[in-house]
């Protein structure tokens, strides 16, 4: 048995119930073969190991020493949490982002739709990119824009040759005027002055009485229309026209203004000289 470790002894490789391990008392210096001795049985070795045979422990001393320093309060449940771990836990944790203010690298892929707070976000990445460069609330900006269909402008509108246009005022262009009617409602015996530099169509609502028509800011060669809507009676109304009108369609005689209540007569004019016009009856009802 000299120079032999106990685990190396064949006879001790398997501990049986009846085996006994004798330990000599080193304090016995009598060199007597009957010196004081003690014995350890299998029951002594497995005390505290429940029914586990000491030979069932397969850990090496190095592996057992690795447990040195582990808190006594560590439970089997807590040790079970590392079951299935395939590499250093801290190394794996260092590759994870924190919940608070995470910093990502590379390309971050977000599913569509995703939930932001309690709101389901439906736009795709392409759709979200449409707001790139927006500097303030989109709805606030949209609320200050005019629709394409029937815009309603306020204040002064300026663009190229358009200047000082306000609500209900026709717009003038370099190559002529647009066809937005200018409306007038003169009082009886009053004069309706038509500014033909604003538009080529003028609509007058006839008062319950006679009235006069005057023209301003005309251009030689300009053609314009005057629509006169009769008041709601059949009474004949007298219209006093511009100073020089040559009525072409009626042989030099002023066409008859409708006497139909709420009817309308339309006249056409071409400017031949300053305050001089050719007049035409366009139609009457």
Describe the structure.
By secondary structure, the chain is mainly beta. Among the domains are: 6-65, no CATH class; 177-284. The chain is 11% helix and 27% strand. It is built from six helices and 17 strands. It has helices at residues 42-45, 61-65, 76-80, 89-94, 125-129, 138-142; strands at residues 20-24, 37-41, 114-116, 119-121, 157-159, 162-165, 172-173, 176-177, 182-184, 191-195, 201-205, 211-216, 223-229, 239-240, 244-247, 264-273, 276-284. The strands form six sheets. A six-stranded mixed β-sheet has the order 9-11-13-16-17-15, with no helix packed on it. Strands 10-12-14 form a three-stranded parallel β-sheet, with no helix packed on it. The longest helix is centred in the first third of the chain and has 6 residues, at 89-94. The mean pLDDT is 81.
Number of helices: 6
Q: Describe the largest sheet.
A: 6 strands, mixed
Q: Count every beta strand, where a strand is a DSSP E run of 2 or more residues.
A: 17
Whole-number average pLDDT? 81
Assign an overall shape: rod-shaped
Order of helices and strands: EEHHHHEEHHEEEEEEEEEEEEE
Radius of gyration: 55 Å
DSSP strand (E) fraction? Answer: 25-35%
- Structural class given helices, strands, pairing? mainly beta
Biggest sheet: strand arrangement: 9-11-13-16-17-15
Quaternary structure type? single chain
